[in-house]
Each structure stands twice: as structure tokens, then as C-alpha cells.
Please model this.
Amino acid sequence: MAQAQTSKDEPDSAAGLVLPHIAAMAGYVPGEQPADGAIVKLNTNENPYPPSPAVRAAIEAACENLELYPDPSAREVRACAAELYGVDADGVLVGNGSDELLSILVRSIVAPGAAVAYPSPTYSLYDTLVEIRGARAQRVAWGPDHALPVELEAAPARLIFICNPNAPSGTIVSTDRIEAFARKREDAVVVVDEAYVDFADQNALSLVGRLPNVVVLRTLSKSYSLAGLRVGLALTSPGLAAQLHKVRDSYNVSRIAQAGALAALRDQPTMRAHVEQVRRTRARLRDELETLGFEVAPSHTNFVLARRPEENLAGLATALRERRVLVRYFTALPDALRVTVGTDAAIDAFLDALRDIGFSS
Ligand SMILES: Cc1ncc(COP(=O)(O)O)c(C=O)c1O
Model:
């Protein structure tokens, strides 16, 4: 799925060993993960605070049994998530990150050549998953003020992704609107990707099970500070979950990941406290960026999208990097930078770098 580094001696003829559409594709480019720990890292929406202390203890205990395969369907994690979110455990799937669950959904629902629809711009991995499948992406531009586009209602696709809150805009669509949309699209599976929803004030849990075509995706990578553990959750109707289970690898989530996930989900106060801190810093970051002349839509996530309409901010991203601050620049959104909400100290370093570059109030 991801772009690999090709060594100079590796002949291009390897392209002939794979399917033509795979050879033709570029591969997903994840945000940079620098080896240099001193860098201020605001580019991949990780949580700047550590996970629950209970996670380490649980992982250590899980190391006792590594000679044994993990529980194939992560029953304890599913039961815990079901209780926490008020859904049926039979409708819960655990994945190696929610990225794996997205891949399972594409492979289960979309035939090569068929369409997958989503509002755009959005999480760019959707494009990559569609390309790998040899399917077609039907990207529908967000409506005014990032409203769910009406055109999506007529999109000839059996799988529809709605990233909510959306990345990289940070904007959110109301649950009522998503419910009305999913009711109109009973012919399709509507995936509400809620990777960032713990940083928002609403979520689509009330739709799970009630609307059998809705899948809500969650991740422990953001609010639970566990990007390194790789755990995601799909919450849906038991009937659809049973179909999706057939497509995932039998042991897709390791013993260590299951143990850590369980401990994290059971410690809601730690997650909530860190989310609250991120939300406070987010408000300050937005204010400061606006003072420095950026346009920043209210964010419902752990990042903000800072825009300078009509400008190209590639140079600014480079200038920040030279000052040891990493943010995310997307060629598809040249007038914007996506900035993860880090600790207050990290945000101060970012703002200082902007002032050093020449931005002033
Ligand atoms: C919108 C969205 N969905 C899913 C993911 C993937 O999360 P995970 O780490 O659980 O694979 C991300 C990660 O950045 C994301 O931004």
C-alpha cells in the first residue's frame, strides 16, 4: 500500500511481475517519520501525550504468551468496545489500525472497475485503496461550508466514505445529515470514518445497528495516543460484520495490540483528559494563526488547516522544516498547511518559527 524505497540496483523489470495497475500506481505517501527525536513533529496527527499507563503493564503481561496465536476475533476488545459504545459485540471488528478496516471494506464490497464515492478533498488513503483494487474513485467536491454534497446521493457506488470530522479540513457534518444520507443510500455501505471524533462534540454511534448499511470506524491512534500499536475498530450491524470477518486475516491483531487496546479503552479518564488538553491548545493555536494572517476554519479534530488563499505554501513548509518544525503540505491543497495540535511547548516552537520566517500580527 505504501510507497517503497527502490534501490538503484533494483531493475525496473520488477514492474512486469505485478499487475499493470499496481506497476502504474505511485503508492501512498505517509507523513515523514523522522529519526531525529529533537524535531517538532506536527505532521501526522499523533497525540502528543502518552497513552494510559495501564497500557504498558498490559503489554508486558501479554509478552508471557507470545508463543501462542492471539484470539482470532479479539473477543475481549470487541466486548469492551461494545459496552463502551453501546453497540452489539457481534457488530464489532478489530483491525490492525483503521487503515486495515478500510482495506477490508474495499475488498469486500467493491469489484474491480466499480466505483467508490467520497467527498473530496479527504483522507488520501481512500484513493490508494481504490487504485490497488483496480476500482474507480468518484470524488465529489464538498458543498459550500463543507456541507455533505448532494451529488453524493446519486453517486453510482456501493461503497461511500464520509470522513467525519474530515481530514484535512477539520470540519464536521451533523449526524442528522449523515443519517438522512444513509437512509437515502440503503443500496450502499456508508462508512463514517470517525478517526478524529473524540476531539469533536458529536458522533454517529446512534446509527450503528439501527441503519444496517452504516459502518462507523474508530481508531486508537489519535485520542488514545496509540498510533504505534495499530488498532482500529469497525462498528456496524452483526450481519455486515459477519461478512467482513471473512475477508480479514485470521490473526490480524497481535496479542500485544489486543492487550494494549483493552487497557486503553478501559481507561477513559486518561484519554478524556488528554483530549481536553488538545482542545484547549487547538483553540489557542487557531487564534494565534489568525492573528498571524492565516484563515483557519474551526476544527473538530486534533489538527488545524491553516490557509493563505491564493498562495502556495510549499516554501513555507520547507522554511519550517529548516527550523526543525514538521507540518503537512499537500500538493492538492497548495494554499494550506495542516498542523497537528501538539503540546503547548511544541505549538509555541511552531509559532516562534513562523515569526522568525516573517509572519507578524
Ligand atoms: C481519516 C483517517 N482515517 C483513518 C486513519 C488511519 O488510522 P489508523 O492509525 O487507525 O490506521 C487516519 C490516520 O491518519 C485518518 O486520518
Observations:
- The pocket of pyridoxal-5'-phosphate is lined by residues 45, 97-99, 123, 163, 167, 193, 195, 219, 221, 227, 232 (CB under 6 Å).
- The longest helix spans residues 268-291.
